[in-house]
Amino acid sequence: MAFALLSYLFPCCIVAMMDRLNVGYAKLQFMADLHFDEALFGMAAGSL
After folding, report:
1. What is the pLDDT along the chain (48 residues), one digit of tens a residue?
2. What is the C-alpha to C-alpha distance for residues 40 and 11, in angstroms, rounded to an integer?
3. Which residue in 4, 11, 14, 23 has its CB near the most CB atoms, within 10 A?
4. Cα–Cα distance between 23 and 21 in angstroms, integer?
């Protein structure tokens, strides 16, 4: 049972980490296009 759960959760954690990294790379473009300041971007990225 534990192996089945871990084999499902591990890929989910990898996908979540990749999503976080993607937001970090897109930060400069987001801030320029959407006119976000640091506080607003931090609040939006923290809600992911």
Report:
1. 788 898 999 999 999 888 888 887 888 787 888 888 888 888 887 776
2. 30
3. 23
4. 5
